[in-house]
Amino acid sequence: MNKYRSHYCNNLRKKDVGSKVLLAGWINKKRDHGNLLFIDLRDNYGITQCIIDKENSNFSSLEKIQLETVVKVEGEVINRSNETINKEIATGEIEVKIQKFEVLGVCKELPMPIFSDQEYSEEIRLKYRFLDLRRKKIHENIILRSKVISFIRNEMYNYGFLEFQTPILTSSSPEGARDFLVPSRLNPGKFYALPQAPQQFKQLIMVSGFDKYFQIAPCFRDEDARADRSPGEFYQLDLEMSFVEQEDIFEVVEKMLINTFKKFSNKKLMYDKFPKISYADAMMKYGTDKPDLRNPLLINDITEIFLRKDVSFEIFKKLVKKGFNVRCIVTQNTKDRPRSFFDNIDKWAKDQGASGLAYFTIEKEAQIQAKGPIGKFFSEEALAEIMKKTKAKVGDSIFMACNNQKELEKITSLAREKIAKDLGLINENIFAFCWIVDYPMFEKNEQTNKIEFSHNPFSMPQGDLKKINFDNPLDILAYQYDIVCNGVELSSGAIRNHKPELMYKLFSIAGYTSQQVDEKFSGMINALSYGAPPHGGIAPGIDRIVMLLADEKNIREVTMFPMNQNAQDLMMNAPSEVNENQLKELSLSLKLKK
Question: Which of 141, 193, 439, 463 could disulfide-link 480, Cβ–Cβ 3.0 to 4.6 Å?
Fold first, then answer.
């Protein structure tokens, strides 16, 4: 028998009554009933209630002991009385009558309680993360994370993938987010970069003749934190396949995600075959390339309505003449909603930095008419055209905004989410996956007016390569795709450009010379010159997958040791200063900005 325990704290049942047992764990709760002391003993696996009466010489010592002290308990399993059975825990029909105990680890006064799910400040939680991780909900989240990763790994093996590890110290990339740089002692003045993703290496694996690769890869990006993005580091299921088209990758990823989400959640899947939405359609219908398809509201463009003579809403008409667009959201059967519902949404839009949301409700008395602040500006014929274009019906309301395309997409996307939430339209018990496809290869930087890669510079353009019009780069679409679930982007991927001459051409459009491509991507461009197969891949984010499965809103709740919003580890005091000898060894000196 192990000297610390004969059973875990979730093992004992009625069949064990009468047995002598050893348990070890943390004191989760104490309840002193005068002559009887109840102790909930907790370990990684569960809780067992232990009792000791005043006749036992250990009673007074246990009575004074601090919560979260680690103890070993020796005692006998006994039945609970019928009225004290706890159906909330697996061991709820029994308890252990303590005969002896031993303190294994003393606990100081706690900065936060463990048995409570009460919210505490980020600073306290992250400084004492080892205590935070003892709390039931987050402890279970981390266990879920381990199980999900193990399940995904086995799925990938079953699909014929091989697991390889790619380097952590690599070269800096000019694309994407900021790199984390590591100075080289043996090569003074030069730096490694931590990989933002194993992008080039996984392509090189395909060039090396391996057919299907994956790894649960750590990635490092010097980015600001968000609810769905950790600062510093994150993990992704990185995979790549040779001799494939887009659909081959979709088939593997859909199967893996469906199996994973059905395994670890009781929520339903809206689609067993994920819909494919072009980037252009996504931006038009949802205002974002991360649409939440649980939300039934759609965005419609009604710009041309404001060219009609029988529409006299001059504010919008003047903006349309300047080249602005008008888009709207239809809400079904909202005619009986109070005025405050509409005014609150208009006020909310102003709080987002927009000029507000104009609105009216379609009614019919003698004829079709619009009720609301701007209803009088539309003739019956104009309303009929709006109804035809948007599929609106009598009793529906229409919210509209006018702006340039970027600002219009931003406010209508947010409004779609806000209105759906206010109307209770989103089913929280569903996972709605979709693919966003047909991304543009290039985009124009609004600040510099230069052409840049919009997504992934190593992607294959669509169409017959001999007929692509490189003189109109903004019209070129790429075999690039994202997978989205409930408005959360899980991953980006692409069919790769495996042709060196085409890579030079595409990079030249983005302003790179052949020499710069050779310098920045020497390993890649050289390898592609020695017989590269058509290949493609994707990299779903592990942290975001677990966040969805755990039904959490913040990625911190499924990450074992996250940093705070300022990319600081409060527990380990990182980043930290280094001494002069360390800097000297690396041939570095510091010149801090004031």
Answer: 439
User: What is the number of other CB atoms lying within 10 angstroms of the CB of residue 260?
Assistant: 19
CB 537 within 8 A of CB 495: no
Residues 6+ apart with CB under 8 A from 299: 284, 285, 286, 287, 327, 328, 329, 412, 413, 416
Tens digits of residue pLDDT in 325-353: 999 999 999 999 999 999 999 999 999 99
Measuring CA to CA, which residue among 508, 496, 487, 519 is closest to residue 204?
Answer: 496
Torsion angles phi and psi, residue 399, rounded to 5:
-105, 135
How far are the Cα atoms of 151, 299, 316, 317, 327 from residue 302, in angstroms, in the given order? Answer: 48, 10, 11, 12, 6
CA distance 523 to 575: 32
pLDDT at residue 286 tops 80: yes
Nearest to 286 by CA among 295, 265, 477: 295
pLDDT in tens, 554-564: 999 999 999 99
Tell me the DSSP string of 179-197. PPEEE-SSSTT-EEE--S-
Helices 246-264 & 136-158 angle (0-180, nearest 10): 140
If you search the block for the tokens 């993005």, which residue do you land on?
Answer: 229
Question: CA-CA distance, 209 to 544, in Å (whole number)?
Answer: 31
Give the residue from 538, 539, 521 showing the smallest Cα distance to 529. Answer: 521
Q: Is the pLDDT of residue 174 over 70?
A: no
Q: How many CB atoms lie within 10 A of CB 316?
A: 22
Assess whether the previous peptide bond of 575 is cis (omega < 30° from 0): yes
In this prediction the pTM is 0.93
Side chain identity at residue 284, one-letter code: M
